Amino acid sequence: MGKAFNIDDFYTNMKETFKVFGRLILEHNYQRNNLTISWPNYQSGITKDIYYVKEYEELIKIRQFSFLLIDRSIVQIYYEFNNDELTKYKLAFYPYPVLTVEDLS
């Protein structure tokens, strides 16, 4: 059986990710708060009945991301632990919105 990872391991990996890929990351916005790793003022869920561009803009505006990449895409990383057990997680990627011909008409 392999080694179980705890919250310290995950947080160390987040910091290492920024060190290794720092040239691709405009900004990092993650924190550890007791048994959770996320971004400040974490809000769960996806907005319903809204265009992707608006959702993306809102996520940037209220800083709901772990990493903002140089192409303006965002990465959300959320981990919640109960002692040394990972109980919840969210890994999401939001590419920078690109308007299509259909969007313009």
Automatic annotation (TrEMBL):
This is Uncharacterized protein. It comes from Thioploca ingrica.
